[in-house]
Design a protein that fits this description.
Blueprint (H helix, E strand, L loop, with lengths): L1 E2 L30 H12 L7 H31 L4 E4 L2 E4 L3 H9 L1 H42 L9 H15 L9 H28 L19 H18 L17 H6 L6 H31 L17 H37 L4 H4 L2 E5 L3 E5 L1 H20 L3 H29 L6 H32 L10
Helix pairs in contact: 1-9, 2-7, 2-9, 2-13, 3-4, 3-13, 4-5, 4-10, 4-12, 4-13, 5-12, 6-9, 6-10, 7-13, 7-14, 13-14
């Protein structure tokens, strides 16, 4: 269903011969600066990934946990700085613009890797939609449990139905999916950024308060959870691998692209907003450095303070660990912010999948009225809208599918770890390094070529280990999990 905007709101109706209002590609003059780009990166990146960092450090311990955060930030900074050079082709500061990650991969690496990149990108979009559904349900459950504990006492057995929360979330998403041009709503970016920052800061403040009150003396250690006390030796190994996936998810820069179209990791949208002079890649390199530094510092706060507050018993979602906290409304408000954030964030990641299938279907069945025909419907107070049968059915089925998978696999840390493993190596490391090699024509088997491939290979191993740990966690959880049961 698409609403038609009045002509006076359409940019296309503006007629002018003033070339100073447009860039070399015919689009409106870009006015973004280092400050705006840095702010966009920081506000967009800090999100639901911070919720699992305390748990991740608890599995790895002080030494490995903090080291992993630093290493992931350094790798992300390096590969992200390389990505800024691929906005234009063939030269990093001149030539045609690549508006998406996939366009850049196609320009530098060819058609096969372009398709391979699409598999990882769209797979990540679907997976993140499932992950956001699970996270929202857990946050709703945390609110219900918090209110229950404060009403009946800390020792009361309080439970919340994850499935019911997911069903309600799904109904809301089906409705939101029918909103026209949802991906163009600029207010969505502002709201999502505000909500993610709010619940992250509240989490940090709650952890500081818990530490300051000294109501408990949680145990921490250099190596994290102890074998024979907290976990078995096998659990220690698998959870450590899974923790790497959780950290990788936090550093997946797909979160940068709020107004996402078809690109993950490459700052296509952000570069699109930067002025052409100085060169976009020069400004974006600086913005990336600022963004990675600030987000890493924030991740350190969330992870380290969360670990100190809860110790080796740190919950998978550290905001869920403040179930009996006074005043209760603060915890409820933080979880409510997560819900609001992810209601919009789900759509941000679903819209590219919607459009991809709809565009493909129109090319496949151009004669089908069900697929291509638009029906004009007048709605009071909203004006005229266009309804398409295929669009309505397809988007509804997609929401049902992701919500069903979330009900079957409602395992927060396992799913985040798997998503982090799935995305980190190919999109954050492999493609940037391969494009860098192609762009600079680095000779095969040269010292630099070997070094870049060693880095890529090492990250591949880390991703495989993280995937293995997450899959093992899912398999273990499925042995005892029963769908459509209330969970504590």
């Amino acid at each position: 269903m698409e609403f038609q905007r009045p002509a006076n709101f359409a940019v296309e109706t503006v007629e002018t011969n003033d070339k100073t209002m447009f860039d070399d590609d015919g689009r409106e003059k870009r006015t973004g600066t280092l400050v705006t780009a840095s702010a966009h990166i920081i506000t967009a990146v800090i999100g639901s990934g911070v919720l699992s960092l305390a748990w991740a450090i608890a599995q790895l311990g002080w030494i490995a946990g903090v080291t992993a955060l630093i290493l992931f930030s350094m790798i992300t900074l390096y590969t992200s700085s390389l990505l800024t050079n691929f906005y234009r082709f063939p030269e990093p500061n001149s030539g045609k613009r690549n508006y998406t990650y996939m366009q850049a991969v196609e320009s530098y690496l060819g058609g096969f890797k372009y398709k391979l990149c699409g598999v990882f990108q769209y797979g990540n979009l679907v997976g993140t939609s499932i992950g956001y559904t699970i996270t929202t349900a857990l946050s709703v459950g945390a609110i219900i449990q918090s209110n229950c504990h404060h009403k009946h006492g800390k020792a009361a057995k309080c439970s919340a139905s994850t499935e019911l929360s997911i069903v309600i979330f799904g109904i809301l998403q089906i409705l939101l999916s029918q909103i026209p041009n949802f991906h163009k709503l600029s207010g969505l970016s502002i709201l999502a950024a505000a909500m993610s920052f709010t619940y992250s800061i509240i989490g940090v403040c709650l952890a500081i308060t818990k530490i300051a009150t000294g109501e408990a003396n949680p145990k921490t250690s250099l190596t994290g959870v102890e074998v024979g006390v907290d976990v078995t030796s096998q659990q220690k190994i698998w959870r450590s691998f899974q923790a790497l996936g959780n950290i990788a998810f936090a550093y997946a820069y797909s979160q940068v692209l709020i107004d996402i179209q078809a690109s993950i990791i490459l700052y296509g949208l952000l570069l699109d907003t930067l002025k052409s002079s100085p060169p976009e890649n020069v400004v974006m390199k600086k913005a990336t450095a600022v963004g990675v530094f600030v987000t890493t510092a924030f991740y350190m706060l969330c992870g380290i303070l969360g670990y100190i507050a809860f110790g080796n018993d740190a919950p998978g979602n550290f905001l869920a660990g403040f179930g009996y906290f006074e005043p209760a409304w603060i915890v409820d408000f933080a979880n409510a912010c997560i819900v609001v954030h992810l209601l919009g964030a789900y759509q941000v990641f679903a819209q590219p999948v919607y459009r991809k299938m709809e565009d493909w279907s129109k090319e496949k069945w151009p004669e089908s009225d069900f697929v291509v025909k638009e029906y004009s419907i007048g709605i009071p107070c909203l004006g005229t809208c266009n309804f398409n049968g295929f669009r309505a059915v397809w988007r509804t089925l997609y929401v049902i599918l992701t919500c069903t998978l979330a009900i079957i696999l409602p395992f927060f840390n396992d799913i985040l770890g798997l998503l982090g493993a799935f995305v980190f190596w190919p999109l954050t490391v492999y493609f940037p390094l391969e494009m860098h090699i192609a762009q600079n024509k680095i000779p095969k088997y040269s010292r630099r070529w070997v070094g870049l491939n060693l880095l890529s290979g090492s990250c591949l191993i880390v991703s495989l280990l993280a995937a293995g740990g997450s899959i093992q966690g899912i398999i273990t959880a499925l042995k005892t999990y029963r769908p459509f049961k209330s969970v504590a």
